[in-house]
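check this one:
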Amino acid sequence: MLFYKDLLFSFICILLLLICVLIGV
């Protein structure tokens, strides 16, 4: 459960980073 939660958190961070890049461009 903890691993899954950490994986989900990482996915959200990456998704936010991609959104920031798209807005910046």
User: Anything to note?
Assistant: DSSP finds one helix and no strands in the chain. The helical segments are 2-24.
